[in-house]
Design a protein that fits this description.
The chain is α/β, with parallel strands linked by helices and 473 residues long. It has two domains: 5-248, Aldehyde Dehydrogenase, Chain A, domain 1 (3-Layer(aba) Sandwich), CATH 3.40.605.10; 253-439, Aldehyde Dehydrogenase, Chain A, domain 2 (3-Layer(aba) Sandwich). It has helices at residues 44-62, 66-82, 84-95, 99-118, 122-125, 151-165, 178-189, 205-214, 227-238, 262-274, 294-306, 326-341, 375-378, 394-402, 417-424, 458-463; strands at 5-7, 9-12, 15-18, 24-28, 35-40, 126-129, 132-138, 142-145, 169-172, 198-200, 220-224, 243-247, 252-256, 284-290, 346-348, 366-369, 385-391, 409-413, 431-434, 452-453, 466-472. The strands form five sheets. The chain has a seven-stranded mixed sheet with strand order 15-16-17-14-13-18-19, with helices on both faces. Helix 1 (44-62) packs parallel to helix 8 (205-214), helix 3 crosses helix 4 (99-118) and helix 10 (262-274) packs across helix 11. The protein is globular, with a radius of gyration of 23 Å. It binds nicotinamide-adenine-dinucleotide. Nicotinamide-adenine-dinucleotide (NAD) binds next to helix 8, strand 11 and helix 9. Keywords: Oxidoreductase. This is aldehyde dehydrogenase (NAD(+)).
Length: 473
């Protein structure tokens, strides 16, 4: 009999301790579909104790000098390095992302703590405006709620700037990313920060999330998650007027213009759509092709997606690994079925497992034709399924791209960058990438419309953890 690992660590007030809660969360391998561990979820007691610890630690932490904070952020970067292998293993085995992508995600997670150090200048916190001295002060205890798709990256991104701002934090990772987030918990615990500055509690939205997001001693909540959860959190916070940052869902368009070179536009669109096996908020899951060249682009897209190697994420040749768990597999199948029932033509992939990959949560990367009113073009799927939509002219492309409750990201492929930039200005999306997919941790990130509220990254992210005070003298 195999003994299952028990993941029951909580990190509260400087101690790694067992969860007070008793509810068990089954942790499965994305690769085999089998149970690999048992997660023990926290409860209201864990949540309340974490907030108390963060509240106690706040006065001393917010009074640290910028040099001290920089040194602690560097300790966190070093500790993330030390836990790198466990973080990668969690991402690959539990989440199903490829080893190469996991390595990249973990390196970036560590880098957030280095970037945050650069924000710590005296000018960031004090400036003179007329007769006023304008001070930026930490908002208070910050609750950071994160999703399962690359848990450590989101935790590090939020925690780095919250701590730099002088806030103390309570992190609540997703209950669907236990292994990934327990590795992050260990990195925090080993970094040597003062007790209570960082706390990590595991638990579901109810009760742990609700306790944290209604708690009177919590000043700020930053969540990355679904739009439905973001709305609950905004409601939860209003009575105590919590500051909220909401990074929510997306249904991002990739507009291929009629002057685009097929050999560049197609890999660009496929990469945008299938990063992290399509389990990415920024995925370009609606590809808009011009009617004048629709057949050519559809065929090239179908060939490109059909040729992708789907398989074990530990195999270096794999491009698309499995999705997170059986629920996610079923969700993806549901949407493929719906797309077909609503009249979509399968250009690549389709229902069921890829041949030879019947174990585990492997799905076939799928391209389906659709019009923008179809379910698969309106709802977020969070798997490797892309709707291919034809437009008549540029105005219609803009109208289709913007006809979505979401507005997180957009992509434009064109032979003329100037034309692409002009189009980008007409799109309702927090970020638009023209012809290239770039890492830009220093530019703002966040959504229009129901993709969220507020911006993250760099000084935009830092500002979300600061209050502004003008003192006249
Ligand atoms: P989710 O909304 O189900 O859960 C996100 C987090 O919220 C989890 O930690 C969950 O436990 C917590 N939560 C749920 N109910 C809560 C409540 N009532 N109070 C407090 N916390 C609660 O999302 P998910 O399935 O983990 O992640 C996928 C979603 O996240 C997708 O919609 C995706 O687009 C979105 N996402 C957005 C971004 C972005 O930057 N905009 C990035 C990644 C993922």
């Amino acid at each position: 009999m195999i003994t299952l690992k028990t993941l029951d660590r909580q990190y509260v007030n400087g101690s790694v301790r067992k969860s007070h809660g008793r509810e068990i969360q089954v942790v499965t391998s994305a690769i085999t579909g089998e149970q690999i561990a048992e997660g023990v979820l926290g409860d209201a007691t864990d949540a309340n104790e974490a907030v108390e610890a963060a509240k106690r630690a706040l006065p001393a932490w917010s009074a640290t000098t910028l040099d001290q904070r920089r040194a602690y952020l560097q300790k966190l970067a070093d500790s993330f390095d030390a836990h790198r292998e466990d973080m990668i293993a969690g991402l690959v085995e539990e989440f199903g992302t490829t080893t190469a992508t996991a390595g990249y995600i973990v390196s970036q997670s560590r880098d957030w703590f280095v970037f945050a150090q650069k924000l710590l200048t005296e000018e960031t916190f004090t400036e003179r405006i007329g007769r006023a001295t304008v001070r930026k002060v930490p908002v208070g205890v910050a609750v950071l709620i994160t999703p399962w798709n690359g848990a450590g990256w989101f935790i590090a991104m939020k925690a780095s700037v919250a701590l730099a701002a002088g806030c103390t934090v309570v992190v609540k990772p997703s209950e669907r990313g236990f292994w990934q987030a327990q590795a992050v918990l260990d990195a925090f615990a080993d970094a040597g920060l003062p007790d209570g500055v960082v706390n990590v509690v595991f638990g579901k939205g109810d009760p742990v999330g609700n306790v944290l997001t209604t708690h009177p001693d919590v000043a700020k909540v930053s969540i990355t998650g679904s739009t439905a959860t973001g709305k609950i959190i905004a409601h939860n916070g209003v009575d105590t007027m919590k500051r909220v940052t909401l990074e929510l869902g997306g249904k991002s368009p990739t507009v291929i213009l009629d002057d685009a070179d097929v050999s560049r536009a197609v890999p660009f669109a496929v990469q945008a759509g299938l990063f992290n096996n399509g389990q990415a908020c920024i995925a370009g899951t609606r590809i808009l092709v011009p009617a004048s060249r629709a057949e050519e682009f559809r065929q090239a897209l179908a060939e490109a997606v059909g040729a992708l190697k789907v398989g074990d994420p530990r195999d270096p040749d794999t491009v698309v690994g499995p999705v997170l768990d059986r629920d996610q597999y079923d969700r993806v199948q549901h949407y493929i079925r719906t797309g077909i029932e609503q009249g979509g033509e399968v250009l690549a992939g389709g229902l069921g497992h890829p041949d030879g990959l019947e174990g585990g949560n492997y799905v076939r990367p799928t391209l389906l034709t659709a019009t923008n009113d179809r379910t698969i073009a309106q709802e977020e799927i969070f798997g490797p399924v892309i709707a291919v939509i034809t437009y008549a002219d540029e105005d219609e492309a803009v109208a289709i791209a913007n006809d979505s409750p979401y507005g997180l990201h957009a992509y434009v492929a064109t032979g003329d960058t100037g034309r692409g930039v002009a189009l980008a200005r007409r799109l309702q999306a927090g970020r638009v990438m023209v012809n290239e997919i770039v890492d830009a941790p220093d530019a703002p990130f966040g959504g229009f419309k129901q993709s969220g509220l507020g911006r993250e990254f760099d000084r935009f992210g830092l500002a979300a953890y600061l209050e502004t005070q003008a003192v006249f003298s």
